[in-house]
Amino acid sequence: MRTRPSKADFPLRDAADPRVLFVHSDRAKRISVKVKAGAREVHVVVPGVNAFPKARQFAMQQRDWIDVQLEALPAPQPFVPGGDILFQGQNFRLVNPVGRGRARVDRVGQRIVVPSLDLESFAGRVRRFLIREARAELEAASHHYAEKLERRVGKVSVRDTDSRWGSCITRQGEGHISYSWRLICAPPEVLEYVAAHECAHMIEANHSAAFWAVCDRIFDDVKGAKRWLNKNGPVLHAVGAEF
Ligand SMILES: [Zn+2]
């Protein structure tokens, strides 16, 4: 049995179940469990180091519930040759053509052709391809909606954010927008909606009725896109997941 951990040991992975991560929180008042669809793991919030033994026991008691939650996540879509991934709302087959060295990754019909010499570089190339495509589409969409609002977009960043599809801050009259690359896997109109939503924050930095009125002014089907994201967010997080 290990000795009691110190604050610096957190986040701490459960030795018995690698899907469980203990997260320390001074603010939390009680032990709680959160399913993290993005990382396909559960976080057990530990309210202070003294609560750790109890939290570990709690996680053990909740094992069945944790199994059910994690098994209910959409099937993983690992970046492997022959695998299918969601791209712009459709299924694409990942292919590694033999003998093409390091030629450019490209789409051919319903396939994404990823020339690579080994499995590790294959996954990395797929990921960089998706980020590249995401950046191109999101930059274009951001400028398009900003223009409709007579605003300017400064920097557009694309990253792997776990909890949000986008965020926008306005500095010196310019919007600096950050997006999740996973939006390139959603249908194009959903990606467009998120860009419109973030641009609307340059007018209203909140989610008030006035903000939604701005969204409706520049984007046709806000409700439909929101519904798609609520329902399919976990599918976007399954893209590139390995297990
Ligand atoms: Zn927002």
Can you describe what's shown?
This protein is α/β, with parallel strands linked by helices and 243 residues long. It has 2 domains: 7-71, no CATH class; 84-238, Zincin-like (2-Layer Sandwich), CATH 3.30.2010. Helix content is 37%, strand content 23%. It has 6 helices and 11 strands. It has helices at residues 52-61, 63-71, 119-148, 188-200, 209-218, 222-238, and strands at residues 12-13, 20-24, 32-36, 41-46, 84-87, 90-95, 106-108, 111-113, 152-159, 166-171, 174-180. It has a 4-stranded mixed sheet, covered by helices on one side. β10 (166-171) and β11 (174-180) form a beta hairpin. The protein starts with 11 loop residues before the first strand and ends in a 5-residue tail after the last helix. Bound molecules: zinc ion. Zinc ion (ZN) binds next to loops.
Give the gist of this structure.
About 35% of the residues lie in helices and about 25% in strands.
Number of domains: 2
Structural class: alpha/beta
Instruction: Give the terminus-to-terminus CA distance.
Output: 29 Å
> Under CATH, the topology of the largest domain is which?
Zincin-like
Share in helix: 25-40%
Number of helices: 6
Which CATH-level-2 architecture of the largest domain? 2-Layer Sandwich
Strand proportion, as a percent range, falls in: 15-25%
CATH superfamily of the largest domain: Metalloproteases ("zincins"), catalytic domain
Mean pLDDT: 93
Number of strands: 11
Shape: globular
Strand order of the largest sheet: 1-2-4-3
The main β sheet shows up as: 4 strands, mixed
**What Rg, in angstroms, do the CA atoms define?**
21 Å
Q: Which cofactor or ligand species appear?
A: zinc ion
CATH class of the largest domain: Alpha Beta
pLDDT below 50 for ≥5 consecutive residues: which ranges? none
* H/E element sequence: EEEEHHEEEEHEEEHHH
